[in-house]
Write a structure and sequence with these properties.
CATH architecture of chain B: Orthogonal Bundle
Number of helices of chain B: 14
Order of helices and strands of chain A: EEEHEEHEHHHHEHEHEEHHEE
Strand content of chain A: 25-35%
Bound molecules: adenosine-5'-triphosphate, magnesium ion
Structural class of chain B: mainly alpha
CATH class of the largest domain in chain A: Alpha Beta
CATH superfamily of the largest domain in chain A: P-loop containing nucleotide triphosphate hydrolases
Shape of chain B: globular
Structural class of chain A: alpha/beta
CATH class of chain B: Mainly Alpha
Distance between the termini of chain A: 34 Å
Distance between the termini of chain B: 29 Å
CATH superfamily of chain B: ABC transporter involved in vitamin B12 uptake, BtuC
GO cellular component, one term (chain B): plasma membrane
Number of strands of chain B: 0
Number of domains of chain B: 1
Membrane topology (chain B): Multi-pass membrane protein
Strand content of chain B: under 5%
Oligomer: heterodimer
Keywords (chain B): Cell membrane, Membrane, Transmembrane, Transmembrane helix, Transport
CATH architecture of the largest domain in chain A: 3-Layer(aba) Sandwich
Number of strands of chain A: 12
CATH topology of chain B: ABC transporter involved in vitamin B12 uptake, BtuC
Pfam families (chain B): FecCD
Helix content of chain B: over 70%
Radius of gyration of chain B: 19 Å
Family (chain B): Belongs to the binding-protein-dependent transport system permease family. FecCD subfamily.
């Protein structure tokens, strides 16, 4: 379980997160939604120790962020940031291989090679394995980045808008794969319909605060869309899942 | 990765070494070989120190334009040396054992590098243009203060400083060889142990952190290693601003997208070829009095401008 307690984050004079407390249950997919600038990426970055915690505390199972060694956390939790660093000349296979670094620290074993091969296969990257990242399309690169995170074999996976640049087939297959993994997935989504179709739990944020937490049926309502996003949209119920008319 | 290219470079280096040791020798071999051997050893040490410190610095700052010399590390070494002589007095300083002088300089440089560059480099997102400006300002500042102190120093003592202020491949301080070799050996061992971590750190702050690295700590470790290596090369042959940039840029051309385990030896081989081959050709073959450092800085400066313009047009 990821437990965020009383986290406040300030940059300059601005308060980005104010007293955020939330529990993200182990197992299943949690979708994080909210308007631009709500603080979703900041919250994810804090959980993944990409930026230092200023106040409050965050634990991932028995690991305390800030206190536990970075390499221990790297075997427990993986993050794909919103704007993942570019490593233009890396090949897809090399990038995915780096996912195993937390385990072998430089000298990959036979087992690591096998996991990389399986991951490439699973993400349909076999044909692209030898290509350099800067020769790929945005969607292909995104797929390679997610594959690296997958090869990291962590219990927890944080993804910041991984559907950016993906077409509908790739988006659906990624979301299905994430569900099938059986890991704890926290994913920032802008498309509420993906959140409501694939997530077990939705956390809605606004202005650096948690606005609502619950199942898609509880959270995705016309009132909430009006409150959080300031837009009036019709919500239909289809097979027990809310769908937003866009 | 690229074993043939590394072997090829090693072969070229062997030819350069043979030429350096034998061409134009006058007098008995019993005298020539040890005399030239000591200089050769010094050049090899520089060829190990300069590219290694440059690669480490570029990886940790994620750029291929800035180098420790361009950021003013060499100038800082000379400043510290000058300040020591100013404070202690030239006679006192010279009376210290050579090892004592060197260790004092190195220690101070490490401290100063951590204070001056540690905060600058530890920020997660770096602005390359701001870094270039900072480097240029540091360089000018260090040289200005050095010049000021030198004017205040007794002319007799000035000679001690002067030896260390200019690049010189012809006259090499061979009495420092042993201590420099020991220090370089230690620093290089640490650098080599970091090679896999450097591959990860090169991916950028967020990806490296995700994979369990600690970029901030690595930055401080690299600064200490760089300070040691810069001390070695500056003490032996003086500051050469663009050598590191030149040879590491070439190494990226020869072994593109290579891991550090390949890039580091490649850059070292290219640097050794540049120094030993260059010195052989200039001194022994062409009998030119143009110092090699001038040629290197000219070529390296052109590379610097090229990279800068390319970076801006992107
Ligand atoms: N380094 C920074 N310096 C200043 N302000 C920042 C910084 N990082 C984030 N912010 C501000 O913090 C707020 C929250 O940013 P954050 O990236 O967490 O939002 P988000 O919910 O992920 O938005 P988006 O949906 O657009 O990705 C924004 O107002 C942003 O301008
Ligand atoms: Mg964001």
């Amino acid at each position: 379980m990821i437990k965020v307690s009383h986290v406040t984050h300030r940059i300059g004079g601005a308060t980005i997160l104010s007293d955020v407390s939330v529990e993200l249950a182990a197992g299943g997919v949690t979708a994080l939604i909210g308007p631009n600038g709500a603080g979703k990426s900041t919250l994810l970055s804090l959980i993944a120790r990409l930026i230092p915690l200023q106040s409050g505390s965050i634990t991932v199972d028995d690991l305390t962020i800030g206190a536990c060694p970075s390499d221990v956390l790297a075997r427990k939790l993986a993050i794909l940031p919103q704007s993942a660093d570019a490593a233009p000349r890396l090949t897809v296979r090399d990038l995915v291989s780096f996912g195993r670094y937390p385990y072998h620290k430089g000298r990959g074993t036979e087992e690591d090679a096998q996991i990389v091969a399986q991951t490439l296969h699973r993400f349909g990257l076999n044909d692209l394995a030898g290509r350099q990242l800067d020769t790929l399309s945005g969607g292909q690169r995104q797929r390679a980045q997610v594959a690296m995170i997958h090869a990291q074999s962590t219990d927890y996976v944080l993804l910041d808008e991984p559907l950016n640049n993906l077409d509908i087939a790739a988006s659906r297959s990624l979301m299905r794969m994430l569900r099938a993994l059986g890991r704890t997935v926290v994913i920032v989504l802008h498309d509420i319909n993906y959140a409501s179709s694939y997530a077990d739990q939705i956390v809605a944020m606004k202005d650096g605060r948690i606005h609502a937490v619950g199942t898609p049926a509880d959270v995705v309502t016309e009132d909430l869309l009006a409150d959080v996003f300031g837009t009036r949209a019709t919500v239909h119920q289809i097979d027990g899942r809310p769908l937003v008319q866009v | 990765m690229y074993p043939r290219r590394l072997i090829g470079l090693a072969a070229v280096l062997a030819i350069c070494v043979a030429g350096y040791m034998t061409l134009g020798a006058q007098g008995s071999w019993g005298f020539v070989l040890p005399f030239r051997g000591a200089k050769l050893a010094a050049l090899l040490l520089v060829a190990l120190a300069v590219p290694t410190s440059t690669v480490l610095f570029q990886t940790i700052t994620q750029n291929r334009i800035l180098t420790p010399s361009i950021m003013g590390f060499d100038a800082l070494y000379v400043l510290i040396l000058t300040a020591l002589i100013f404070v202690l007095g030239g006679q006192e300083y010279v009376r210290l054992p050579v090892i004592g002088q060197f260790v004092l300089n190195v220690g101070l440089l490490m401290g100063a590098a951590l204070v001056l560059f540690g905060t600058l480099l530890s920020q997660a997102r770096q602005d390359i243009m701001r870094m270039i400006l900072t480097g240029i300002i540091f360089g000018v500042l260090f040289r200005a203060v050095t010049g000021f102190l030198q004017r205040m120093i007794d002319p007799n003592e000035y000679a001690v400083v002067q030896v260390n202020s200019y690049a010189r491949f012809g006259r090499i301080e061979t009495d420092l060889l042993l201590i420099a070799a020991v220090l370089a050996g230690i620093a290089l061992a640490f650098a080599w142990r970091m090679r896999h971590r450097l591959d990860v750190l090169e991916l950028g702050h967020d990806t490296a952190t995700n994979l369990g690295e600690t970029p901030q700590r690595a930055t401080l470790q690299v600064l200490v290693i760089v300070a040691a290596l810069v001390s070695v090369s500056t003490a032996l042959v003086g500051p050469i601003v663009f050598l590191g940039l030149l040879v590491v840029s070439l190494a990226h051309q020869v072994t593109p997208a290579a891991r550090h385990a390949v890039l580091l030896p490649c850059a070292v081989l290219i640097c050794a070829i540049t120094l030993i081959g260059g010195q052989t050709v200039l001194e022994r073959v062409l009998a030119l009095s143009t110092p090699l450092s001038v040629v290197i800085d000219l070529l390296g400066g052109a590379v610097f401008l090229g990279l800068l313009l390319k970076g801006m047009s992107r």
